[in-house]
Design goal:
Helix content: 25-40%
Mean pLDDT: 91
Order of helices and strands: EEEHEEEHHHEHEHEEHH
CATH architecture of the largest domain: 3-Layer(aba) Sandwich
Bound molecules: adenosine-5'-diphosphate, magnesium ion
Shape: globular
CATH class of the largest domain: Alpha Beta
CATH topology of the largest domain: Rossmann fold
Radius of gyration: 19 Å
Strand content: 15-25%
Number of domains: 2
Structural class: alpha/beta
């Protein structure tokens, strides 16, 4: 299919993908034709059963994976390769270099992007300050907690000053309290920027708390089953979490997901009656 003209900021058009199984034993379809228009400045979450193709779609959006069919357009132009000037990534595994300090982990990333040295320190200092980690600039990754490492990974993404950040389960390895505080800080931080964020998460609460919209995926081969809108100003306050609105949205997501997760697990586990 040829890309269709579009006014969307990011336009996912009929993207579908299968992986070749190990040993060349046929293909595993992971993503059915999926379309989605993303607005500039919004935070949209992808939520869905494990293995339904969320990371695959994120990788297509980042230009890291060429889909078997379909296209992703960024401001009308097809994405064929990574574009580090425009798109930054934050992964679950924070991928900090253990031999570099927190500060160096950021300046090294800026060196890769050919940012002049005098600007590197300035950007890194600002980004570390934004995530509350400036006091730890001279620490090594081994000397800070998991939550702090993810803050540094976020600072690194912010320092690249891209318009788009793709986040693949950035808080998944953290305990619930740490995620909660990080989520609140992220909401404050993002309300000050015009960045467009795509967040893959397993957490229903996190999706509702942070997102403008939540795209719920079906079981593999996945596609977007429904999109839930969260009409709530940013930054979100902690009393939003205890509100009826929050709980209704969370419950709505739970029902949508439950069906899909059951399908996924039924295909993997069999309990004999
Ligand atoms: N490079 C790859 N080669 C083969 N199979 C893959 C590859 N990457 C992912 N898969 C498979 O594709 C499916 C979807 O993966 P993924 O997009 O990572 O799911 P999700 O992020 O929704 O959990 C999974 O079953 C996974 O094992
Ligand atoms: Mg994934």
């Amino acid at each position: 299919m040829n890309p269709q003209p579009t006014n969307a900021y990011i336009d996912i058009q009929e993207v579908a993908h299968s992986f070749v199984k190990a040993g060349g034993q046929g293909a595993l379809p992971v993503l059915q034709a999926t379309s989605l228009s993303i607005r500039k400045g919004e935070l949209i979450s992808f939520i869905g059963p494990s293995g339904c193709g969320k990371s695959t779609l994120l990788n297509v959006m980042g230009g890291l994976l060429r889909p078997q069919s379909g296209t992703v357009l960024l401001e009308g132009k097809a994405i064929h390769a990574p574009s580090p000037q425009r798109v930054a990534y934050v992964f679950q595994e924070n991928a900090l270099f253990p031999w570099n300090t927190v500060m160096e982990n950021i300046t090294v990333a800026l060196t890769f992007q050919n940012i002049p040295q005098n600007e590197q320190k300035e950007r890194a200092t600002q980004a570390l300050s934004d995530v509350g980690m400036l006091a730890f600039a001279q620490h090594y990754p081994d000397e800070i907690s998991g939550g702090m490492k993810q803050r540094v990974a976020l600072a690194r993404a912010l320092s690249l000053e891209t318009d788009i950040i793709l986040m693949d389960e950035p808080f998944a390895a953290l305990d619930e309290q740490t995620r909660m505080v990080l989520g609140e800080d992220l909401s404050i931080l993002l309300s000050k920027t015009q960045k467009t964020i795509v967040l893959v998460t397993h957490s229903l609460g996190e999706a509702v708390f942070l997102s403008d919209r939540v795209a719920v995926f079906s079981a593999r081969p996945g596609t977007i089953k429904e999109i839930i809108e969260v009409h709530e100003d940013h930054p979100r306050q902690s009393d939003f979490v205890t509100s009826e609105k929050f709980n209704n949205l969370r419950n709505q997501l739970y029902s949508l997901l439950h069906e899909e997760v059951k399908k996924t697990i039924k295909n993997e586990v069999h309990i004999k009656p």
